[in-house]
Amino acid sequence: MVAEIIDGKRIAEEVRADLTSRLGRLVTKGVTPGLAAVLVGDNPASQLYVKMKGKACEEMGMDHWTVTMPKDASETRLLQEIDRLNADPKVHGILVQQPLPSQISTETAVAAVDPRKDVDCFHPENVGLVLIGVPRFAPATPAGVVELLVRSGHDPGGKHVVILGRSNIVGKPLAALLFQKARGANATVTVAHSATRDLAEHTLRADILVAAMGQPEFVRASMVRPGAIVIDVGTSRVPDASKKQGYRTVGDVKFDEVREVAGAITPVPGGVGPMTIAMLLRNTVQAAESTAGAPPG
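Above: the chain sequence. Below: its structure as tokens.
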């Protein structure tokens, strides 16, 4: 058995295409959705992510701004910048790129963003709305995982989904989305983590296995039930002298090994990553629709 490759780039293009008519309706109302990214420091990965998000906005005809701050910027200075963006009517979505430097509290920064502009869905109010099943926005990466599953013909309804990782960015909100009584949900969800005993006992029972713990190539073929759907959220750089840049990008799954037993699998890169950006664009359009009084969707 060789697994089907779930093409995140292609599915992300489908999501973007779905936004075209919504953008057109907003333009007729004189509204151009705008996304502002705040980048503190010079983390290369963060710089790349913000650049990719800006490029995606340009391709869709959306406005975008990148606010760059030095790595020694104070928390007070960051909060002032967030307040300015909160008050700017041209800005419909705000994301504060993580990780933040140690002198800044991530929780404080996230809570400072107007929840109506929190297109990353990190604000406590928005997290709570996701949990009770009435989300203002769906968190970008978890929502991207759900869209990948549904659009590739692997609806999680009635399935056992095992999530490896309990982060606030992926593991927890993905679990909250998947156990709802809703489209792309209705799953039985197990969340495993660093303190889980006999991890393989859980992963081998999964109809759908989501790896999101940030451990490069951690999931091996022996941990995957034959025919299971494997979604790899991880992105890590590992040394590779054969590459010009001296490294290669891998996920949390040993891809070449696991694809021999899985029924379907996402690659890294080209799987979940493009979906995260597509869902961020969708949330920004939704925020602009709310501002313009336009019906969503």
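The domain at 30-116 is CATH 3.40.50.10860 (Rossmann fold).
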